[in-house]
Predict the structure.
Amino acid sequence: MCYVIGRGDDSVDLRGVSLAGRDMSGWHMEGAIFGNADLSGTILNGARMARVKISGANLSGARMVTADLECAEISSSDLRGADFTRAHLRMARLTDVTAPGAIFRNARMYGAELKNCDMADADFSGADGRYGSCVDCDLSGADLHGSNFARAVFSNVRLGNANLSLAYFCDAQVAEVELAGADLRGCSLKK
């Protein structure tokens, strides 16, 4: 069964809504606005959420496996322990997000922008973040094993004790990155 919120060309305003713990897998919510919404523990696997605007929301523990979040704007929100495995986050913007322990395993994050985010201990293993950017972020203890961040920008990022084994950063612009205790075995940093 497929549920559709809006027509995709409208912005449906869902500010302040509580959908905590609900199963909304496969729903179509393109362009929706989730300001100060409670989506904690919500199951959004395979949901189509391109161009959504999420601000001040609680998505802690949400499951968004294979969700389409292309061009999504997520700001000042709680993503602790949220699962974005194999999610499509192409050109998405995450700003001032708190996401320790969040899972972005094998996520497609081509051109995504992460700015001022706390993503300590997050799992980015196998993620494709080519041409993206990560600025003023804490990724200490994060798992980036086998990820691809070719031609990405990493500036003022904490990667202490992170797993960067077999990660690919060719032609990436890297400045002011803290790597103390990071596992760099097989990591490619060629220019």
